[in-house]
Amino acid sequence: MPLDSKTLCLGALDAGFNTGYDIRKAFENGPFQHYQSLSYGSIYPALNALLAEGLVTCRPHSQDGRPDKKVYTITEAGRSALRAALLQPLEFDRLRSGFMFALSFAHRMAPGELSRLLDDYIRGHYDLADELARIDGVTTPGDRFLIRMGADVCRAWGRWIEENRAALEHDIQAYRTARVPLRDGTHG
Amino acid sequence: MPLDSKTLCLGALDAGFNTGYDIRKAFENGPFQHYQSLSYGSIYPALNALLAEGLVTCRPHSQDGRPDKKVYTITEAGRSALRAALLQPLEFDRLRSGFMFALSFAHRMAPGELSRLLDDYIRGHYDLADELARIDGVTTPGDRFLIRMGADVCRAWGRWIEENRAALEHDIQAYRTARVPLRDGTHG
DNA sequence: CAACTCATGTAAGCTGTTACATGATTCG
DNA sequence: CGAATCATGTAACAGCTTACATGAGTTG
Which stretches are transmembrane (chains A, B) (predicted)? Predict the structure, then answer.
């Protein structure tokens, strides 16, 4: 089962983000940014739907100088719905990787092009690992676990590529040699 | 830049899949299945668009007993377009993970529920690693690299969770103790 | 004989994003 | 003084998936 925008909003509300604006930040720069996304166009309609279903309550909050906001609170029914959704068999993680697709055409690339692609991918993983390591103020055990996991897995991933990129380059050499045989067959 | 359906079809064609039906298999069960997806509704219109742009050619192929098929061939212009698309700065890998979202609410789960979630996630990684290791008949260096990378990273990921799940459970205990202090303060 | 494979294609629908409208305030 | 931040909301659009139409042949 895919996690839909309503469930994601419910989760964000449960995690302490209590306005539409704040929920967006949770998915843009906040704790969910690395494994889910959600934008205004989905959030506001979702909150209204949740309100109609009684899964959240809402009270307007006037502020001086700033626009009024609507502060949402998850209800008991909402918490049950969230739990139920999270316990349902989850869809397996969906990875959409342009790098991998590109890498599957490594044999079509010039050495410099491939090198740049790998450099970018390695750097991307190390940067993400560093970014995760720098996060602080994380309050829940699950988030702490996920951050450590992300950082360690990203580092291991980057290291794996560094350790195996030479083998890839050799394999490409061999592949090309096999496909474009030497004209002079007397040697090797 | 995201890889659109036309570029993905061009790639599949370059990789040797030469009908709409075969291209779908490449994304459903074939070499691209783990990092991209594409279905009929996108493939057939994309092929027609590519044909109109001169990036592919097409000749009908009659078969006895089976429906006629259209065999597509990528042109030189098509190969250039594919290369150009792959060299463009790629969007960073997008991970949509229901497991991670669920795990961020680990402190709300009963021990058995959390345990099942982690078991499923670990098993999913080991299963994928095994599945990748079982693949044979891979002809290009890039694909061989990706398969080894996927298998090794998945195994390392699964191992990481096994080695750190106890820490998560302890952290949850500590979190709950801090939030629901003992009524009798005289002991520990 | 039901169900699946081969094979192309379209229409409807779902889900989500982008961009805009609105408007005060604060920061550089 | 322009740009960003706070704050809600909608309309238009993009992109992809699902389901269907069609139909012969094969597998269990």
Answer: none
Q: How far is A44 from chain B (nearest CA, A)?
A: 20
Asked whether strand C has any atom less than 7 Å from the CB of A63, the reply is no
pLDDT digits (tens, 9 = 90+) for A111-158: 999 999 999 999 999 999 999 999 988 889 999 999 999 999 999 999
Give the number of domains in chain A.
2
Compute CA distances B93 → A38, A102, A164, B158, whole Å: 16, 12, 20, 20
* Tens digit of each residue's pLDDT (9 = 90 or more) over B36-64: 999 999 999 999 999 999 999 999 988 87
In angstroms, the separation between the Cα of residue A143 and the nearest Cα of chain B is 5
Any CB–CB contact under 8 A between A177 and chain B?
no
Q: Can you give the residue range of the structural domain that contains B50?
A: 5-87
Residues B33 and B105 in one domain: no
Using the Cβ of A140 and the Cβ atoms of chain B, whether some distance falls under 8 Å is answered with yes
Task: Report the CATH number at residue A58.
Answer: 1.10.10.10
The residue written with tokens 């995690």 in the block is: A15
Q: Is A20 on the interface with B (CB under 8 A)?
A: no
Q: Band of the pLDDT at A188, cuts 50, 70, 90?
A: very low
Q: Do B96 and A93 touch (CB under 8 A)?
A: yes
In a domain, A134, yes or no: yes
Cα A137-A141-A146 angle, rounded to 5 deg: 85
d(CA A107, CA B62): 33
Structural domain contains residue B186: no
